[in-house]
Structures are given as structure tokens and as C-alpha cells.
Amino acid sequence: MAWILIAFLILLGGLIAPFGDLLGTKIGKARFSILKLRPKKTATIVTVITGGFISAISIGLLILVSEEFRQRLFVDIPFLQKTLDESKKALLPLQEERKRLEDKITNKEKELKKLKSDVKEFRRGNVVIKRGQTLFIAQVTSNPDIKLDLANIYNSADRYVQKIVIPTKKEIKNILLWRPSDISEIELVTSKGGNWILLIKSATNVLKGDNFVFVYPELLQNKIIVRRGEVITSAILETKDFGYKNINSKIKTLLRKTRDKIKLRGSIVNEISTRGDFIKKIRDSLKINQNNEYLLEVISLNDSKTADPIIVELNITKL
What we know:
Layout: H1 2-29, H2 39-65, H3 67-124, E1 127-129, E2 134-141, H4 146-165, E3 176-177, H5 180-190, E4 195-202, E5 206-207, E6 213-221, E7 224-226, E8 231-237, H6 244-265, E9 272-274, H7 278-288, E10 294-300, E11 304-305, E12 310-318
Parallel strand pairs: 3-6, 9-12
Antiparallel strand pairs: 1-5, 2-4, 4-6, 7-11, 8-10, 10-12
Helix pairs in contact: 1-2, 6-7
């Protein structure tokens, strides 16, 4: 059926084409004009219309005779177009995910490059300041002369860091490099009032003899972390814990929990100072009575703020 249809279309085209050409020639010779066009252009237009007529008849016959052609034209093509549009929409999230992964890979490559650089510096053995290390701590209280106070802090930090990095240099110079936006931010925040703790941290590893140290600030509110007499942490000492090793382990765990707790509250202190011999105090209590459980409490001996040392003692109570 398909071959017969193709042969018929070829035959039909072959019959109509000479007719169109003949019609164009006749119109040209008769010098017939449409819409005031020249006869030659009129003949060309007639020929073009004839060709379009051939195409239209061919498509019409295909639609009329071939069910497969109708299926492809009116069903499959719109379906394929719809499928293509849906595929494009489904591809968008994948493209975004790909971009995120590429960005993540790029960042990891940068981190790896930085890590390799840091390792090389460490191998050289001349690193005197580590990246992220706190170089200077100062208390800042809002007042009308806050900019002058901050300038004095920056100068003190400069002198302190210079002694670490260039200890042999006698001439005082500005060794710290800040981003101007960081200094502006400090001035803006501290001028609004309140008490603050200013941490000046190193942005890079620094080698001995370097002329400059890139730094960044961390501004913390100077607030009460613990109050005098406050029980910070506590634990139960059971009969099974009465051995020396168990008591020592119990105290270390309790102090570690105490340090973690004050860190969560905002303290920048890394170590806790203790008063008294905890082990001796507990052992003296156990000599009196070993048939009871005891409550161990870590108690603050002072009011301590963000940067203040945390001083504690251990209190043991029979339950």
C-alpha cells in the first residue's frame, strides 16, 4: 500500500509540475499582471503557487489514505513534543545539582591546595602562629572615646605579635593587616553600648620573620558565665566507684563536663582552675563511712564573665 501511494504521489507531482510550468509560461507570454506586478514576477508567483498546491495535495492524500501517517502526525508528534518538554523540566534539577557538586568540588580543591600549602609551611619548621590562633584578647566597654580605646588595643596587639614574629626587630611597626570592613564593624557594634570581648585571630599560618600577619576579629558579648556558689555540674559517687582509679576517673569526667558546659555558655577559657585536693577530700570522707552513696558537685568560687578564669572546688555530700 505504501509503495503504491508513493508511486501515485510521484506521478501526480510529475503531471502537475509541467502544468504549472506551462501555466507560468502562458501567463508570461500573455504579459498578465497580478497586483500591478511585472508579468515575469507574476509568472514566478503562479509557479510557486502551483508547487504549493502539489505539496498540499500530497499531504492531503497521505492524511486521507494512510492511517499510520495520521497517527504519526496528530498523535505521536504532539506526544513527543510533550515528552520533550517534560524531559527538559526534569533535567533542570539535575543541572542545578550538577552545578552544586561542581562548586563543592572546586571548594574542596581549594581547601586541599591550602592544606598542602600549610603542610609545606609546617615541614619548614618556622611556623610561629597557626591559622585561627587567638593572638590578643581585650575587653571593650562602650564610651564616647571608643575609637581611641580601640586604636590603643590595636597598637598593643601589634607590639605583642611583633615580639612573636620578629623578636629581633627593635623598631615598632604595624605588623597586623586588617580588612577595613572588619574595623568598621567593630566600631559600629561597640558604639551601640555594652561590654565586649575582642579576640584578634590569625587568618593564616605565620612564619618567623614574616613582615605582616593577616588577622580578623571576633567580637563576643562580655556576659556572666557562672556565678559564685553556683553548682555547675554534679555526679553520683556509688559504692563501686570507691577505688582510687575510679574516683580519679569520675573527677576527670566531671571536670570535662564542666568545661564543656561553660563553653556552651560562651566562655573562651580553655582550662578550669581547681582549689583543693579533690581526691584527698573524697578519701577522707570515705574513711568515715563507705556504706553510702555521695553527691559530687563542682561549685564556682567566683563570678566569672566571658574571658575570666573559671575557678571551682568540689563539694562532696553524703546521700
